[in-house]
Every structure is written in C-alpha cells, then in structure tokens.
Amino acid sequence: RAKSAGGNRFELADPEADARAITRHGLTTALPTALERGEFFIEYQPLVHLGDGSVRGAEALVRWLHPQHGVLGPDRFIPLAEHTGLIVPLGRWVLEQSVRQAREWRELQGGAEAVGPLRINVNLSPCQLTHPGLVQDTVDILERTGIEPDALCLEVTESALIGADDDLLKPLRRLAEMGVDIALDDFGTGYSNLANLRRLPVSILKLDRSFTQSMQQFPADPVDLKIVEGIVSLAHSLDLAVTVEGVETGAQAEQLRILGCDTAQGWYYARPGPPERLHELALVDATG
Ligand code: C2E
Ligand code: MG
Ligand code: MG
Ligand code: MG
C-alpha cells in the first residue's frame, strides 16, 4: 500500500506508521553511540520475600535517557540493540553496573544483614547467550567487584530456552556450577514442556505477570488457582524457587503467598527506582 511507482520513492498512506518509522530510524542511528555518551541508566525494583515481607534483592532494569525523546523503556530499544549487536556491550555494561551496585549496598548494609546480603538479578538477552564471551565476562566482573557468584541471578526468558540445544545451555551450566542462579523469566508464556525444566540449569521460576493478573479478584478463578498451585508444586518438587512478577495489590500478594510462591516483585511493593531507594527500603525493612 505504501509503495509507489518508480525508483526509491515511497508514498506513505499511513501517517502514524510514518511517524513510527521515523522514530525507529532516529533511535537506530542514535543507539550505537548512546553507550559511549553515557545515556543509559539502571533502575532497581525490589524482590520481596512473601513469607516475611523482607527485601531480599532487586532486579536491574535498563533505561535510555534519550536527548530528544526523554526516558525510553527497554521495550523501545532492546529489540533494536539486539538487531544491531549493541546488546552485547550494553548487556555487559548493565551487568557490571548492577554487580557494583550490589557491592555498594552490601557496604552500606554493614552488619545489619539479618536476611543476608542483597542479591542482584540481571536480564540476559538471547544474543548474549550465544556470545562466546559470556562466561568469562561474568567471571571477570564478579572478580573485579569481589562479589560471590551466589549473589547474582541471571534472568533468561522461557522463550529463549525453548528447544535450546546443549551448545546453548553450556554457558548457563558453567555459570550455574559456579553458583550463579539462573531464573526462567516470564514463565508460563512460552508453552514449554514442563518436563523439559529438568534439563535446564535453572534454580528459579519467574511466573509471568499474566498469572498475577488472574489473581485480581478475590477469591480468584478456581481454575487459575489450580494452575498456579500446580506450577508451584512442580517447581518445588524440582527444587526451584518461585518468584511472581507484577504484584500490584495486597490481595494478589496474599493469594500468591497462600499458594506457596516464595518471592514477589511489583508495584505493590515498589516501582523500579534509583539505587538509593532500594537501599532505603531494605534498611527500613531490616530495622523494623
Ligand atoms: P522483565 O524482565 O519481565 O521485567 C519486568 C517488567 O515488569 C519491567 O518492565 C518492570 O518495570 C515491569 N513491572 C514490574 N512490576 C510491575 C507491576 O506491578 N505491574 C506492571 N504492569 N509491570 C511491572 P520494564 O522495565 O519496562 O522492562 C521490560 C523488559 O525489558 C524486561 O521484562 C526485560 O525482559 C527487558 N529488560 C530490562 N532491562 C534489561 C537489560 O538490562 N537487558 C535485557 N536484555 N533486557 C532487559
Ligand atoms: Mg526479568
Ligand atoms: Mg519477567
Ligand atoms: Mg515479564
């Protein structure tokens, strides 16, 4: 429809698509140098223990402060970064910053660590999984920072691991053997074979937000309850911990706690925010 006769001229019939294409193009050209220009920053969202409400760690979520468009969420630029290959250096930068941040929290925590040092969760893109430097980069960052591997959790989406062969799983196995936790992110959206979980080197399931949303009503739909109950019991029988995403209300938190989920994350506790905020939340929590 947008094509016109002759040469490279296009007649755009859809002005909105046109605007999107321009934005996309603008982002694509600005992206490669955004890392050098220091335009990325990280927000942290607390991970809360459902049993006692204590803050146990945080997920690192990257943002781009674009000079013209303002703050852009990862959904706007991660796909572009994957497409252009920037995701590898960007992902490495996020990992290093986040691990350094975890060490800073630890120093601030001092001796007041009733629940142990705060842990840090970092998202990995499928492109990073196939990049040969992943294991060594991670080892180097942990060594430089002086953080034990078991304070780090790498989140990989279920869809990235569906049908994964041994070559793809090898770096994750190496990391898991070192003590790094691997979490299966957005679990339940990818139609993966549950029996398949056994061969993945994961120790945490992050139940997708759609399950949390189905707990909106109280009491929730009995079928939804059964499904979550089944996933939780399967996970626990495989020695996997269950984290729930997108908890927005106290009723959801309570329902998911009763169903046996271990850890929760969502706006009910806190929106993603600057590192000082996470530290404040953890501190308030530790001192009662
Ligand atoms: P994710 O890893 O599943 O992260 C959770 C997303 O849910 C985040 O969106 C978070 O802000 C949002 N969220 C948290 N609590 C709630 C809630 O209560 N309600 C609702 N509606 N949403 C909530 P965000 O920050 O926009 O990130 C989107 C996705 O971008 C992430 O999904 C992750 O897949 C990806 N991402 C973020 N940072 C990175 C990164 O450094 N590297 C890579 N490769 N991907 C990243
Ligand atoms: Mg995640
Ligand atoms: Mg997730
Ligand atoms: Mg999600």
TrEMBL record:
<protein>
    <submittedName>
        <fullName>Diguanylate cyclase (GGDEF)-like protein/PAS domain S-box-containing protein</fullName>
    </submittedName>
</protein>
<feature type="domain" description="EAL">
    <location>
        <begin position="24"/>
        <end position="286"/>
    </location>
</feature>
